[in-house]
Write a structure and sequence with these properties.
The structure holds 2 protein chains of 2 kinds. Chain A is α/β, with parallel strands linked by helices. Chain A contains 8 helices and 15 strands. In chain B, α3 runs antiparallel to α4 and α4 runs antiparallel to α5. The longest helix of chain B has 19 residues.
C-alpha cells in the first residue's frame, strides 16, 4: 500500500463529525447540523411544499452538504466516507424534510445509495408515512451502453437535477410533479468523466487507483471506479475532442438544441485548466450548431484530490431555463442571475 | 445440541474480534476493486453490534440488533447487505428460545436469500453470496448427517473460505467492482472474505467453548 498522502485531519474516526461541525459553524445563515448528524436548512421552506432529501457518502464535498439551501435540497443525510447512510438515518432525514406536501428521496444511482434508500422507504411503509417517493438518477454514459440507461451511475450531471428540481420544489409543484421533473432533467442529461491523477481515501490513506504518469482514464467514476479506457495523456483540446463526441452522440444532442454545460472539478483541477477545457467545448458546440444557454464550471462532486473533470450537458427547454435561472443559495453553490 | 442466545452473543463478539485483526487485509482486498475501506467499515460495524447485543435476550434480538446496527453504522452497500443478512436471519427464528443446527442452517439460508433479493446478486457475481452460499450448503449437509455444531461450523468455515477464494476467478456484475470488468480477475472480493472470516470466527468460538 502506498504511503498515506498528506492531509490535515485530526484522526480518521472523526473526519465526518469534524467536517460537519466546521461546515455548520461556517454557514449558520444557510444550514444547521442536527443532533443526529443531518444537514438541514437554517430556515425551512414554507409548509405545503415538497421536501427534497438525499443521502450520500461523504468525501465528495461540496456534494451534498453544500447543496442544502434555498432552491436546492431541504435535507442532506451525510454518510460515512464514500458510504451511503443507513436506512434508519435516511428515515430521519425524510421526517426532517416533511413540510406537509410529501418528500422526494433523491438517489444517485450507486448500489449502496439505492439499497439504503429502498430500505428507508420500507421503514416509511412500516411507520405509515405514505407521502414519500424515490427517484433514481443516473447520467454517466461510460457505465452502461445506450439502451441500458437505467444501469448507469449517477455522477456529476446530477447537479443539473438538483439545481432545477430544487427550484421546482420551491413552487407549488406536487410530489408526483417533482418526481416527473427529476426524470425529465435526468433524461436530458449526459456525462463523461476523465481522471488524470488519483485521489486517496481519507480514512485508509490508500491511493484509490493506479494510473501511470502519462495516462488518463476516461469514464472514471466518483469513487475511482475504473472506466472504459486508458489513453495517453494528451492536450486539453484533444481531451475534449475525445470526450465530447460520445456525449453528444448518446442523447443525442443535435443542431438547434440549447444546452447547459457543466465542467465538474474532480478535486484538484485548477480553474485555469477548466477554462482551457471549456474553450474547446464552446468551439466544438458552436461547430455542431448547439447553443449554450448557461454554464457552471467548478467543483460539485469531488473525489478528494483526484485530478480530472466531468463534462456534462443538459438539453433545456423554456421550462428548464426558467428553473436554472431561479436563485439557488447553498453554502457552496450559489446561482443568482446578474 | 442447541445454540443458545449466549452462544449467538459469543459468536457476534468473536466475529467482531476476528474482523478487527483483519482490517488491513480487508482494506487491501477492497482497494483492488472498491474504495479500500471495507475492513475499517465492517470492523466498526461489528464492534458497534457487539456492544449493542450485550443485553439481547433471544436469538431473534441478537440477530436483529446486529443487523440493524450494521445497517446504520456501516451504511453503503456493505451495511445494507450485511445488515440484511442478519435481519433476515433473525426473522426466521422469531419465536425461538434456542436454535437447533437445522434452524441455524435455515437462518443463514434466510439471511442469504435476503441478501440476494436486496442486492439482486446471484452466486457467481463475485460478492459475499459466493462465500455465504457454500457455507449454508455445508450447514444443511451437516444437519442432515446429524453432525455436531462444531463439525458443522468447521465445514461451513472451510466452504466459505474456499468460496471466497473462488471469487478471484470471477468478474463482478454487481456494485462498484462491476465497473472494473475483466480487471477484477485475480482479486478476491472483500465482502466474500468477510463472510469467510465470520464463519471462521464462529467455528473458533464453538471450538473454544
Amino acid at each position: 500500500m502506498a504511503p498515506r498522502t498528506k492531509k490535515l485531519i485530526n484522526q480518521p474516526a472523526t473526519i465526518l463529525s469534524d467536517m460537519l461541525e466546521g461546515f455548520a459553524a461556517a454557514y449558520p445563515d444557510i444550514v444547521r447540523l442536527t443532533d443526529t448528524g443531518l444537514i438541514v436548512r437554517a430556515q425551512p421552506k414554507a409548509t405545503g411544499k415538497v421536501g427534497l432529501v438525499i443521502g450520500n457518502g461523504s468525501g465528495h464535498e461540496p456534494a451534498m452538504i453544500g447543496l442544502v439551501g434555498q432552491g436546492l435540497f431541504d435535507v442532506n443525510i451525510p454518510g460515512e466516507i464514500f458510504a451511503a447512510p443507513g436506512p434508519g438515518r435516511i428515515l430521519e432525514g425524510i421526517k426532517a424534510a416533511d413540510r406537509g406536501a410529501g418528500v422526494l428521496v433523491c438517489v444517485s444511482h450507486h448500489a449502496g445509495d439505492l439499497m439504503n434508500a429502498e430500505m428507508a422507504l420500507e421503514l416509511c411503509g412500516m411507520e405509515g408515512i405514505e407521502a414519500v417517493e424515490m427517484v433514481v438518477l443516473y447520467d454517466d454514459i461510460s457505465s452502461a451502453p445506450k439502451g441500458r440507461e437505467a444501469e448507469r451511475r449517477g455522477t456529476a450531471g446530477l447537479f443539473f437535477t438538483w439545481k432545477m428540481l430544487g427550484a421546482f420544489a420551491e413552487t407549488d409543484a406536487t410530489l408526483a410533479q417533482c418526481k416527473a421533473m427529476a426524470e425529465k432533467i435526468r433524461d436530458n442529461t449526459r456525462t463523461l468523466s476523465v481522471a488524470i491523477t488519483p485521489g486517496t481515501n481519507p480514512v485508509s490513506g490508500a491511493v484509490m487507483f493506479q494510473l501511470p504518469d502519462d495516462e488518463i482514464e476516461v469514464g472514471m467514476g466518483v469513487h475511482g471506479e475504473i472506466g472504459q479506457g486508458r489513453q495517453k495523456l494528451v492536450s486539453a483540446d484533444q481531451t475534449i475532442d475525445i470526450m465530447l463526441p460520445p456525449v453528444l452522440e448518446d442523447l443525442p444532442f443535435r443542431a438547434g438544441d440549447e444546452v447547459l454545460v457543466f465542467l465538474n472539478n474532480s478535486g484538484s483541477m485548477t480553474q485555469m485548466e477548466l477554462f482551457i477545457l471549456y474553450r474547446r467545448v464552446a468551439q466544438r458546440l458552436q461547430e455542431a450548431g448547439i447553443q449554450v444557454y448557461k454554464t457552471y464550471i467548478g467543483p460539485y462532486a469531488t473525489t478528494q484530490e483526484m485530478a480530472g473533470f466531468a463534462l456534462s450537458l443538459c438539453r433545456v427547454d423554456d421550462e428548464l431555463k426558467t428553473l436554472w435561472d431561479a436563485p439557488a443559495i447553498g453554502a457552496n453553490v450559489r446561482i443568482v442571475q446578474p | 445440541m442447541t445454540i443458545t442466545t449466549q452462544d449467538l452473543r459469543g459468536m457476534i463478539t468473536a466475529i467482531s474480534a476476528t474482523i478487527s485483526v483483519n482490517i488491513s487485509m480487508l482494506n487491501t482486498l477492497d482497494s483492488q476493486l472498491g474504495d479500500g475501506d471495507h475492513g475499517t467499515t465492517i470492523s466498526a460495524g461489528f464492534a458497534a453490534a457487539a456492544e449493542q447485543i450485550a443485553a439481547a435476550d433471544s436469538p431473534f434480538d441478537v440477530l436483529r440488533l446486529t443487523g440493524m446496527t450494521l445497517m446504520n453504522r456501516m451504511g453503503g452497500s456493505s451495511g445494507a447487505l450485511f445488515g440484511t443478512l442478519f435481519v433476515q436471519a433473525a426473522m426466521s427464528v422469531k419465536e425461538a428460545e434456542t436454535v437447533s443446527l437445522k434452524q441455524f442452517a435455515a437462518l443463514w439460508q434466510a439471511g442469504g436469500d435476503g441478501v440476494m433479493k436486496r442486492g439482486k446478486a446471484a452466486p457467481g457475481d463475485k460478492t459475499m453470496v459466493d462465500a455465504l452460499s457454500p457455507a449454508v450448503t455445508a450447514l444443511h449437509q451437516a444437519a442432515e448427517k446429524g453432525e455436531t455444531v462444531e463439525q458443522a461450523l468447521q465445514a461451513a468455515a472451510a466452504a466459505a473460505e474456499q468460496g471466497a477464494k473462488n471469487t478471484a476467478e470471477m468478474t463482478a456484475r454487481y456494485g462498484r467492482a462491476q465497473y472494473v470488468g475483466e480487471r477484477a480477475i485475480g482479486h478476491v472480493d472483500a465482502g466474500a472474505q468477510s463472510v469467510a472470516l465470520m464463519f471462521s470466527a464462529m467455528y473458533n468460538y464453538w471450538k473454544g467453548k
